[in-house]
Each structure stands twice: as C-alpha cells, then as structure tokens.
Amino acid sequence: MKVLIVGSGGREHAIAASAAKSPKVKKMYCAPGNAGIAEYAECVPIGAMEFDKLTEFAREKKIDLVIVGMDDPLVGGLVDELEAAGIRTFGPRKNAAILEGSKAFSKDLMKKYNIPTAAFENFTDPDAALAYLETARFPIVLKADGLALGKGVLICQNLEEAKEGVRTIMLDKKFGSAGNEMVVEEFLTGREVSVLSFVDGKTIRTMTSAQDHKRAGDGDTGLNTGGMGTFSPSPFYTEEVEQFCEKYIYQATVDAMAAEGRPFKGVIFFGLMLTEDGPKVLEYNARFGDPEAQVVLPRMKNDLIEVVEACIDGCLGQVELEFEDNAAVCVVLASDGYPLKYEKGFAISGLEKFKEHEGYECFHAGTRFDGDKIVTNGGRVLGVTAKGRTLQEARENAYAATEWVEFGNKYMRHDIGKAIDEA
Predict the structure, then answer these.
(1) CATH code assigned to 2-90
(2) Torsion over CA: 173, 223, 227, 252 (sign)
(3) What architecture is domain 327-422?
(4) Confidence band of 423 (pLDDT split at 50, 70, 90)
(5) Mean per-residue pLDDT, 123-128
(6) Alphabetically, which GO biological process terms does the record hold (predicted)?
(7) Torsion angle, CA of 19/22/28/34, rounded to 10 degrees?
C-alpha cells in the first residue's frame, strides 16, 4: 500500500513509526512532515489545510490510504473532500469532527445523552457571560468554543480573573474565531486521565490509558501548552473506572453521535477527570492526542494499518487491541519561551543515540533540515520516549535519554510522571 499521513508534529511521527512496522505498507508520504518523519516517509511540501493540493497529490500518486493526524484539517472537512475523490481516508468527516471542533456542541451532546460531564453554560454574548459569572462559584473554567491549539482554556480563581478571561476570549479574540462562543464550566478536581479509542461508526475499542501534563512549568505552573510530556498507563485508571467509562461514557458517545446523524469513524480522545463523584468527560478530541500518541502507539502490538482499515470498513468488532505489559514515558524538549516567544534554527545533536538503544524513541515535533543538519523549528521540538518494566523505570529511562540530545534554548519540565510516585 501507498500511505499518506497529513501533519507535521510528534503525533504524526508516532503514527508514521507505527505504520512503518506494517507489512502492508510499501511506500509512505507525509504532508508536510518534519525531519524525523523523513526517516519513514517522503515528506512533501503541502500544508495540512491545502485540501485541493492534497487531493491532487493523492490522486497523482495513487495513494491507497490517507491518515489525517491533525485537528484543523479534520474539522475543516479534509476527509469529506478526499472521500469525494474516491480516496480511502482515516479520520472523522466534518460533521463528526465537530465533537472536537465545537466545545459547545460536545457539551450539549453530553447533556442530551446523560454522559457525565461538568455543569456548564454556553454563551455567544459576552455581557450575558459576565452577568452569569456574577453569581458563579469559583474557581471556574472558561473555554473558547473552537480550536485553539490546546490553549483556549482558562482557569479563573475569582470574579476579576473571570471577567478578564471573557475579555480575552470573546472581546480581544486572543484565540480568533474560536472565541465567538464560549463555554463556562464547573471546575472539577481529581486525577486527569486520557483514553484514546478507535471507532468504526458503531463499535469502539479503547487503547491503553495515559496522562498528559499541559502546563509549561514544573508543578503544573505557567501557561497551558500543547503538552509537555505524558506517561502510560495511568495507575489511577483502575478496572472499576474502566468499567464505569465503558458503560456510561465510551459507547454512549459513539451511540449519541450515530443518533445525531453524525457517525464517527476515526479516533476519539476522551479527556477524563476522575472526581469524587466518578469519572467525568473534560473534553473530546477527534484524533490521536499529542503527546499521548507517543506513549500509546509504541506500546500497541496490533498492526496499525489493519486497525485503521477495520475502522474505515466498519468491522472493528472483529479486532481485539493488544498492548505490551510495560510502561512508557515521554518528556517533551521544548524551546525556552514556549508557548509564547522563542527562537528557532538551533542545530540538534545526539539524535543518533536513539538508534543504539532498544526501547527508546525520539519523536520530532518541531524540526526541519538545514542542509544536512537537523535544526529546531517550533515551540515543542522533540518528544523523548522510553519504555520500562514499571512507570518509575520508564520515567528514569526517559529523563536519562533527554541528556543525549542538545540544542540551543533546550527546555523541559523535570516532573513528568511525578504523580506516579503518589499512586
């Protein structure tokens, strides 16, 4: 098969590395890709939102399967365009990708179908939002409705912060049109867990659990980011929690989308909060998490391409997912200053060390070639992933491996997976 992956981050590198193991794959392309993905795929200079060019390329190269990794093209309808051109594509159509594309839609869906989530109200009028906040309990959560690179969520400790948050999202439009509508949500406390799943429109198969670290600084301080590291599995995701989620959240979400005439095929990411009142859905994503994919896919025993095809063909019920009996930790190496202002173009050294050690991978998130050198090209640069027999061992291995890599402005959190010690 000839496979095209759409995207350029660590998630797409993890997808490419997993797909490359499949005997079904003869040739892989990635648009636009990065310096790490180039090891597995021929990178082509087409942006993820250039739908016409992607369709034309897929036709010209007789691509057998397209895997769309990123949220923007999914929400924008790339799957619809490719399918209309007769190209097999993995990912939800536009009317199903709204599960991630509109937080107001997903919250209303959960309310309608009794899927456990935080209490909330949706607002399109900033004055109405401000009036509501006058009577609210704090802390409280404000969410821009649309896509905001994982950064459109503000946790406000008091009324003054909340008023500033409304200004930021709805009036100053810090997150662009994503802030045309806003969700005001009850602040939940507990352990966060991420569960990725494959869906074929009616059947769901969940993957192993993971936990992300969103904040830029140690101790969960600083600004929200796209993710500074993750570990898998989560020791807090017990069998009891899993059974509850299977009964009241996972299948319920798939059935709800089908009932709404929006059958979902692809990956649903469940962001959960394990509260005293039981698990609740914080958010849905309509694709693999980043950096969750970097710890979940390396542990998956199944042939990714076979699973993807089962989703497309509606026969996922015949597939049982299998994962290695071990653990993985990913530590993101970022550019100092991320997620605000940072410099790019620093040469990266030490990448060859990962070829010398089994159980270690370095996923590229923001890199490019500068001649024959690989240089930094983003806020999140690399995801250093290591396996271990236990979470503690995987964490030690991952942090040891971060020392192999050097580049100017290198920054990382030093407490990824620290919660493991409290389990």
Answers:
(1) 3.40.50.20
(2) negative
(3) Alpha-Beta Complex (3.90)
(4) low
(5) 95
(6) 'de novo' IMP biosynthetic process; purine nucleobase biosynthetic process
(7) 30
Tell me phi and psi for residue 82, to 5 degrees: -70, -45
Interval 280-288 mean pLDDT: 96
Spatial CB neighbours of 348, under 8 Å, sequence gap ≥ 6? 367, 373, 374, 375, 376, 381, 382, 405, 406, 407
Q: Show the tokens assigned to 304.
A: 């990714």
pTM score: 0.95
Res. 420: pLDDT tops 70: yes
Q: Using a pLDDT cut of 70, give the percent of the chain over it.
A: 99
Taking only the tens place, the pLDDT of each residue in 169-206 is: 999 999 999 999 999 999 999 999 999 999 999 999 99
**CATH numeric code, 191-318:** 3.30.470.20
Torsion angle of the four alpha carbons 311, 315, 316, 322, in this order, in degrees rounded to the nearest 10: -110
Query: Which string of b and e fits 329-366 if b means at least 16 CB within 10 Å?
Result: bbbbbbbeebbeebebebebeebeebeeeeebbbbbbb
Q: Match domain 119-186 to its CATH number in 3.40.190.10, 1.20.1410.10, 3.30.1490.20, 1.10.8.80.
A: 3.30.1490.20
| Dihedral sign computed on CA atoms, order 1, 197, 91, 311 | positive
pLDDT digits (tens, 9 = 90+) for 334-389: 999 999 999 999 999 999 999 999 999 999 999 999 999 999 999 999 999 999 99
Characterize the bridge pairing of strands 204-212 and 229-232: antiparallel
